[in-house]
């Protein structure tokens, strides 16, 4: 029978992914993830990634009270954001929905759909890559900008971003695969506080299938090489970084 503390930790993945915890709580959660078994740790990362990728598909266009059915639609979108290939997913015992509903309701209060007023459109990603409409939506923003940086391992990372939208796409060009037993991991680095994982790059992001990240003004993006499955906090120096301001 699964440990109840594992269920609680997976419940905490939702507010953690939405930055709805304080610094001390974040540190405590990350320590618990580090101390947890490998299955629980990887399951936590899967939940965090699914929440952030789904929320990354939303435009913060207008703040308004959510419709009564909005929570259910967000939950359905999160379920669709899980990996399509069951063999690639970590088996998860479904966490309690009560904390999940509470935190997602708070997030829903400040977002509206791209294309449907008062609702959400959260299209399923293949792994961790953004769908082309998401990339196009970012580039249509008035403040859209593009930046590139070399990776110390070789190749170039290109970012298309909109601070107004709070989202960016990340693509590699001529970047070699990560070393055996390792993955590239993307981080958002705020001006103060700890870096926040935006997920591991199980598939190399490309111009046609970029990875999506959410950020705030003043943040930076960084890429590190981490052990397979990713890390709750960076364990190596960045191989590339760039300011998003």
UniProtKB/TrEMBL annotation:
Residues 9-55 form the Anti-sigma-K factor RskA N-terminal domain. It is a single-pass membrane protein. InterPro entries: Anti-sigma-K/W_factor (IPR051474), Anti_sigma_zinc_sf (IPR041916), RskA_C (IPR018764), RskA_N (IPR053877). It is found in: Cell membrane. Residues 105-239 form the Anti-sigma K factor RskA C-terminal domain. One of its GO terms (cellular component) is plasma membrane. Keywords: Cell membrane, Membrane, Transcription, Transcription regulation, Transmembrane, Transmembrane helix. The chain crosses the membrane at residues 103-122. GO terms for molecular function: sigma factor antagonist activity. This is Regulator of SigK. It comes from Nocardia nova.
């Amino acid at each position: 029978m699964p440990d109840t503390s594992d269920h609680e930790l997976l419940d905490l993945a939702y507010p953690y992914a939405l930055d709805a915890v304080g610094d001390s709580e974040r540190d405590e959660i990350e320590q618990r993830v580090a101390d947890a078994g490998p299955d629980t740790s990887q399951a936590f990362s899967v939940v965090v990634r699914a929440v952030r990728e789904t929320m990354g598909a939303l435009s913060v266009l207008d703040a308004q009270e959510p419709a009564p059915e909005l929570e259910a639609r967000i939950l359905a979108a999160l379920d669709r954001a899980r990996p399509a290939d069951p063999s690639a997913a970590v088996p998860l015992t479904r966490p309690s929905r009560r904390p999940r509903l509470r935190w997602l309701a708070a997030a829903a209060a400040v977002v509206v759909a791209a294309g449907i007023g008062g609702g959400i459109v959260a299209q399923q990603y293949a792994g961790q890559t953004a769908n082309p409409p998401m990339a196009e939506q970012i580039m249509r923003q008035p403040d859209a900008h593009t930046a590139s940086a070399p990776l110390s391992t070789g190749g170039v990372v290109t970012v298309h971003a909109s601070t107004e939208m709070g989202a960016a796409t990340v693509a590699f060009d001529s970047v070699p695969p990560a070393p055996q037993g390792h993955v590239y991991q993307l981080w958002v680095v705020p001006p103060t506080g700890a870096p926040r994982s935006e997920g591991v790059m199980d598939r190399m992001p490309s111009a046609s299938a970029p990875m999506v990240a959410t950020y705030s003004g003043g943040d930076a993006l960084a890429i590190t090489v981490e052990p397979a499955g990713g890390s709750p906090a960076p364990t190596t120096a960045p191989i590339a970084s760039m300011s998003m301001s």
